[in-house]
Amino acid sequence: MSNNSYKKQLKKFALFFSVIIILTFIVILVNLFANKKNTIGLKNILSENLGEEYILKDEVKILNTMKVGAICFEAKKGSSNLNVILLRVTTLYGPIPCIFIYDTQTKTTTFFDYVNVNERIKTHLPPTETDKVIQYWTNKIPEIITTTKEGKNE
Length: 154
Prior knowledge:
Layout: H1 3-50, E1 55-60, E2 70-77, E3 80-91, E4 94-103, E5 108-114, H2 119-124, H3 132-150
Antiparallel strand pairs: 1-2, 2-3, 3-4, 4-5
């Protein structure tokens, strides 16, 4: 092969890889914008379900594998500082988003409500006081929040 054919191949490879790099940057940018819009939408859903007595603030980044199925926001209700967690919980009817409220002073978690669930399905869900899945997440959320706040488990 001559020197010219190597130059032609090199130009083809350079063009190919530059297209790949440009497409990668486009995908990254679209992902960043979509995540921001998704966070704003989830915050609006939480605000609608919580009512006006809760004031949502900034998102709290979850620093473990729970970030895939949960989102957390700082909140205020009166003088108490809270964390509001929107979490996908597995039920007989499939995954249902649930709102949990974590009180940062007392370090306790309470179940608030299911989100966007048909009333007919709500009547068939077990009572939250006896539901083992809700109890599990109520006990697990303080550990998740502690990990998020400190970057490690206590």
